[in-house]
Amino acid sequence: MTAPRVFGLTGNIPDPSVITQAAKMLREGGLVAFPTETVYGLGADATNPKALERLNQVKGRPPEKPYSLHLYSMDQVRAFVRSVPPLAERLMQRFWPGPLTIVMPGKDGKSVGFRLPDHPIAHAFLHACDVPVAAPSANRSGSPPPTDAKEVMAALGDTFDCLLDGGPTNLGRESTVVEIVDGRLEIRREGAIATEAILALIK
User: Fold this and answer.
1) What is the pLDDT of residues 169-180, one digit of tens each?
2) Which end of the chain has fewer CB atoms within 10 angstroms, the N or the C?
3) Residues 177-196: pLDDT tens digits?
4) Quick one: how far is CA 147 from the chain centroid?
5) Can you give the pTM of this predicted structure?
6) Pairing of strands 100-105, 176-181
7) In angstroms, rounded to a whole number, what is the distance separating the alpha carbons of residues 95 and 174?
8) In angstroms, rounded to a whole number, what is the distance separating the alpha carbons of residues 103 and 110?
9) The dihedral of CA 1, 67, 48, 133: what is its sign?
10) Chain centre distance of CA 176
11) Taking the domain 5-202, which CATH number applies?
């Protein structure tokens, strides 16, 4: 395989031409690594089965394990669910955009994880993609998640297509994952947001 294209991006206003190129690669079935405020993600078009199959191969992840969707707006999230549970709405208003993944029932009744990253490059890229993006951490499953471009390259080599290099991530820790089950909150993974901060909101 050819080496991934690497674009260096700095500042809060990412180069639109670069973002457009990266989004086009993703929509055409490519895998694009990009920074979030937590760690680097490896994005694929969540509506493209072949892209998801390739993502599974690169990650070394079983196909039955679902990916969370990375989106750029709450309106996008609302389009994927019949209704947002009240508890999820409170979490969305308090912690989004930010390092919180919220799992709730999708329109088909199956649980779906949603995240809105708080990072200018991630936001611009997801907006340009205009499709739901499956974006686990940009590493092989079981390995430490990468927090800068060098770690992404060391973890994945030439197995993906494009890297948006935004420098080191701010938090360096994965998102906290919560699930809303029958109106109750369950913590699936404690990450960048402490459990205490979430529980304090819902008391």
Assistant:
1) 999 999 999 999
2) C
3) 999 988 899 999 999 999 99
4) 14
5) 0.95
6) parallel
7) 14
8) 10
9) negative
10) 12
11) 3.90.870.10
